[in-house]
Each structure stands twice: as structure tokens, then as C-alpha cells.
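PROTOCOL LOG
Step 1. Enter all chains and additional molecules of the complex.
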Amino acid sequence: MTTITHHAPDALLAAYAGGSLPQPFALAVAAHISLCLDCRAAYEAHLATGGAVLETASTEAVSDGLKSNVLDLLDAPIAEKPVYQRSGAFPGPVMEALKGKPPRWKSLGMGVRQSILSDGRDGSVRLLYIPQGRAVPDHSHNGLELTLVLQGSFSDETGRFGVGDLEVADQTVEHTPVADAGAPCICLAATDAPLRFNSLIPRLLQPLFRI
Amino acid sequence: MKQSSPQISDLTAAMIAVRNDRDRDAFALLFDHFAPRLKGFIMRTGTGSGQAEEIVQDVMLTVWRKAEQFDPERAQVSAWVYQITRNRQIDVIRKENKPLPEELGEDPSAEPDASQILAVEQEAGQLRDALGRLKPDQREMVEKAYLGELTHQEISTQTGLPLGTIKSRIRLGLEKLRHELKELR
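Step 2. Run joint prediction.
Step 3. Record the structure below.
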């Protein structure tokens, strides 16, 4: 087990607990918490605060029939939702986004691959596969980007990121992540805005590859 | 005067009885406590009375059905119910499931450590007291954050609440659970 050195910032965990994070970020944070006991403890501390808010909320009387209704339904059969387990490098929440199937990789050239998990109005989230020594093309960010390492490691101007580490980058960070030697680096990358490249050609490719 | 030793709260005891013994009377007690609070809490976000009651019903049924996941060594009942409530509200409003962290694998111990439970309750009580001592505008910001009405950019990490102490206590509960998991494998 590697030691996680890059954690989710507290405001992000609070927003995740409160439920205001856009879906792509919520997935990245849920996956990080699945790997990181420290951030799980911090997240549960935020749930305790939410519990305190609930406990001190002003009350509203419920309808007369609600309690007997609920009591009658206690043992009614329900359709169980599937629970997705961790599989290889992919924690449960990522497996859920993959609907239990292996990722469908698409080549981005130079051995780099991606598998888009979702792409919508509130951002996008995808898996990236980067062979050792390869860079994710130089890009800067319109909004916030969360990158969670699931296998291998990468390094950029801000440090080295191994399995479980979460990198938080915004428009102030101009970085070039390069996969370290060893197993190919697989990471989960979530953004709330389309990425843009600094060089011309990848920018032309951007709509094509949705990167 | 001799002080009596502290007792596990009625709510925690009721939740453990629901979890271990499927105790319906204990569940009724939880319903009476939480249903009006939940309805008030849910209506704060602008949800109407009818839909709020539907969510209250879903939440209370989940409390019954998922009781085996409740771990009093890590969470107070209110924290656990809060989590279920926000998840349900998000599912209803956004019509998509909120991604949730993996469960830790094994169910929590059937015979939990009373001193750890009491310590978690004590920390949660201090958190509630601290919430009560905040200035009205500070308190409103905290409430908004946990009702999901502030973006992460808007959330200041300086809430004035002593989150560090309860975090360390929860961390102990998590480590204990993980230790038990290792022994099972």
C-alpha cells in the first residue's frame, strides 16, 4: 500500500458531503475517499456537522398517516440496486460509472488513451492511460481539474503523484504531467470545463477527441 | 455527590437495536425523533410539504433497510441519517445518483465498544454546542453549506467549528474497523 500524500482540500470534502459538487467532481472525490482513510475520516467529520445541522433544524409536523405508512412498508420487497465492487485499479465508484464493464479505450496518439465516462453540461470525467515517459499534452485549464491516480504515477511541476493521490489544478496552474517509469499510469480526470491546449494542433483536435 | 457513569444516548441505543434485532419499537422511536426534523430540514431547500414527506419516507425506510451499515464507533445516528437524506435529495432533484465512496467491506462489529461510542457522542455534542455558539451570519453559512447551497469555492474552510477533534475520533473508529477486516482475511 502506497502512502497518499496529496489529499482532497477540506472545502472540496465539505462540498461533497453537502452535495453541491458537480457530478464529475463528486465521482473523483468519492473515488479518492474510497482509497484514502484520512479523507474518509474528514468526510465523515463533515457528515457529523451536517448531522448537527439536521439535529438543530426547526421541525415541521408530519401528516398523521406517514408513520403507519412507513411502518407498513418496512418489510415490503424492493428492487436492490447493484453494488459495484473495486476491480483491479478501479475503485467502486469508478466501476459504477463504468457500469461494471472494462473501460473502452480510444487512442489519443503516442500510446496515450482515454475512456470518457461522462461528458455533459456540468463537466466531464474520463480515464486516461499514459505509458511511461509520455506526457499528457500541455494544457491549461478553464476551470477546475481533479486528477486521481489509480495506477502507476506521474510527476509534474508541482510534485509526484502516486496511487490514491489527488491533484487539484485550476487556471493558475500551467502544468505538464509526465508518467513515471514503470507500469502505465492510469488516472481519473474530472473537469468542470473543456480542456484547452496551448499548442495549435492539439487545439484543432480538441473537438474531435473531446479532450 | 457521586456522578453516574455516562450512558449511550437513547437514539444510538435505538439504532443499534434496529440494526442487531430489527426492533420495530426502537425504529418507531427513531421515526418520532427524526421525521419532523427531516421534514423541516428538507423544506429549507424549497421543497414543498408533499414532496418533503415522500423524501422523509424514503429516508426512514433506508434507515431500516441499510441499518447494518450503521457504525456507532464512527458516526452518530444524526450524521448517518444526514448522509442518507442528502443523497436521497440529490437523487430526487438531479435525477441521477450521487457517486458514493466504497463501503469498507465488512459490517461493523455487532458488539461495539461503548467507550468509543461515548467518545463519538461527546465529540458530536461539542460540535453541536459550537454550532450553537456561532454568530447568526456564520451559522447561516454553515447551514447553507450542509444544505448543498454553497459551491466548494464559496465554502470557507474556516467555519469556526472544531472539526479536527471529531475527525481524529472517527479516524480511530475507521482504523479499528480496518484492523478487524485484516483479521478476518
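Step 4. Note key features.
Chain B is about 65% helix and 0% strand.
The first helix of chain B runs from residue 10 to 21.
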